[in-house]
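User: Could you check the structure of this?
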Amino acid sequence: MVPDAKHAPLPCPCGRPAYDRCCGRHVGTALPAPDAETLMRSRYSAFVLDRREHLLATWHASTRPAAIEPPPPGLRWLGLEVRQHRLTGPDAAEVEFVARSKLAGRAHRLHERSRFVRDQGRWFYLDGEIDPPVAG
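Assistant: Sure, the predicted structure tokens are below.
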């Protein structure tokens, strides 16, 4: 049986199944992500959906900017590939990922190794190392 398109769940921007059962459980809610990879996926979804409040709320206070600029007009996020997720300590983790986007007809890849910390039981984005951008 084919699901009714009107009631089919929206796909999650992070590439996993339904948004409401994936990143939608964390973006704009008080439910903390259970691990750094889940938090990183929810942050990617927040970038796709322009939910800057989630990005700020999940950024560690020690490195959080005062504000996040809106995305450039016409930016389209095309996909996320998580390459590695590893614990680096009892309350620290790294997630390596590639996020693809398109702007003004040009494709771009963002390759980052992000660092996360668990503070008072919640995971937060700390910072990341970004490889030089690749266009094309």
